[in-house]
């Protein structure tokens, strides 16, 4: 692809580095930005700078937040004895959109995937272990995708928590094996949480 401007070429290169965007789409977006008012482009650039420099990880759960602790963890009306373990913020958003879950979260930030170089030590679990030691948590729900990575991660967490004095459950498999939470419809996801199973029972179902 030949460019008449090195600035255009650089913009296309940077935009095409985003997931799911090829060079043709990147060129179309770059040309669209050229046609926009300067103030609109500056607003976009500022929002991206703020995204990078001002968004934090909640120290309590790992959710994305503008403050040290996210709004969910700060909300006293939430059930802090109930913790739902998810992979990332997209899963938090999917569950919150159901309007049926009133507990708090633990956002792992990744799933165990040796092929991608992600091991147990890369999971954000430390703050959950601290909560468990403090005795406030009564139930932990594993709400991980039905992929091999999700199942592997869930089993690792089960082994780590099974001797704790808590109830350990898993979302019901209204979410098909191989599916990701963020793509489930709200009704299916809500029912999967409401009809969650003891984790050991879900293990038996997966093996049968």
The 3D shape can be described as elongated
- Output the helix-strand order: HHHEEHEHEHEHEHEH
Task: Provide the CATH topology of the largest domain.
Answer: Dna Topoisomerase Vi A Subunit, Chain: A, domain 2
Number of domains: 2
Major sheet: arrangement of strands: 4-3-5-6-7
Oligomerization status of the protein chains: single chain
The CATH class of the largest domain: Alpha Beta
Fraction of residues in helix: 40-55%
First and last CA, distance: 53 Å
Biggest sheet overview: 5 strands, mixed
- Uncertain regions spanning at least 5 consecutive residues: none
CATH architecture name of the largest domain = 3-Layer(aba) Sandwich
Structural class: alpha/beta
Question: Proportion of β residues?
Answer: 5-15%
Give the strand tally.
Answer: 7
Number of helices: 9
Integer average pLDDT: 89
| Rg on CA atoms, Å | 21 Å
Features of the shown structure:
alpha/beta; two-stranded antiparallel sheet; 2 domains; 5-stranded mixed β-sheet; elongated; single chain; Dna Topoisomerase Vi A Subunit, Chain: A, domain 2; 9 helices; about 210 residues; Helicase, Ruva Protein, domain 3
Written overview of the protein:
By secondary structure, the chain is an alpha/beta fold. The protein folds into 2 domains: about 5-55, Helicase, Ruva Protein, domain 3 (Orthogonal Bundle), CATH 1.10.8.420; about 75-205, Dna Topoisomerase Vi A Subunit, Chain: A, domain 2 (3-Layer(aba) Sandwich), CATH 3.40.1360. It is about 45% helix and about 15% strand. The chain has helices at about 5-15, 25-35, 40-55, 70-75, 90-95, 125-135, 150-160, 185-195, 200-205, and strands at about 55, 65, 80-85, 105, 140, 165-170, 195-200. It has a 5-stranded mixed sheet with strand order 4-3-5-6-7. α7 (about 150-160) links the parallel β5 (about 140) and β6. The longest helix has 17 residues, at about 40-55.
């Amino acid at each position: 692809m030949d460019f008449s401007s090195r600035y255009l070429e650089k913009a296309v290169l940077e935009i095409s580095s985003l997931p799911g965007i090829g060079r043709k789409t990147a060129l179309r977006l770059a040309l669209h930005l050229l046609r926009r008012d300067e103030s609109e482009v500056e607003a976009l650039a500022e929002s991206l700078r703020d995204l990078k420099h001002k968004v934090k990880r909640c120290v309590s759960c790992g959710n994305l937040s503008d403050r040290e602790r996210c709004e969910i963890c700060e909300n006293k009306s939430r059930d802090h004895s109930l913790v739902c373990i998810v992979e990332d913020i997209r899963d938090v958003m999917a569950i919150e959109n159901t309007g049926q879950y009133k507990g708090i979260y633990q956002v792992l930030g990744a799933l165990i995937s040796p092929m991608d170089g992600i091991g147990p030590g890369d999971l954000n679990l430390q703050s959950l272990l601290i909560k468990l030691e403090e005795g406030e948590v009564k139930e932990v729900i594993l709400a991980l995708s039905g992929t091999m990575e999700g199942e592997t991660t869930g089993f690792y967490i089960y082994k780590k928590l099974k001797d704790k004095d808590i109830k350990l459950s898993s979302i019901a498999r209204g979410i098909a094996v191989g599916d990701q939470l963020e793509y489930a419809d709200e009704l299916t996801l809500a029912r999967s949480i409401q009809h969650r199973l003891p984790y050991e029972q879900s293990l038996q179902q997966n093996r049968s």
